Amino acid sequence: MKKKFIKWGIIIMLSGLIIGVGIIFYVFNQPHRNIQAIASDYQMKASTLVEEYFTDAILANEKYLQDEGESKIIAVTGTVASITKDLNQQQVVLLKDKNEKAGVSCTFTSETNINTKNLKIGETVTIKGVIRSGAGYDEDLELYEDVILEKCDIVNN
Description:
single chain; about 160 residues; alpha+beta; CATH 2.40.50.140; 2 domains; five-stranded mixed barrel; two-stranded antiparallel sheet; about 30% helix; elongated
């Protein structure tokens, strides 16, 4: 009786382990969402997106984030205020007018970095990506925070 119980216990544990490994393998090998191939859910000026977050961040998150936590795809149009690189050598384009408190920081991918080479400061451009975080005001640092888009690319007009 005891041997039969141990045998079934081992079979159940091995089955659970095999199922768990299969689930992990499936999740990590899912294809990534191709942001550039999918139509934008929203198109707007960069200043409009920033203002929505300053007005009501909770409502803006409900509007732009899906239930699973994935962001909807957004195309924003604005003036290029700066072009920099992040620590991962990804191009970061800030869309912001001189009189605005905050802007939209657009982080490109290694595949789309090349598309920023002809951008110039002061130029108006449309960039598509997904929201990582919204605009806000940090009272401790007394600084305005930009909306952050990631997986970005320039939209061809």
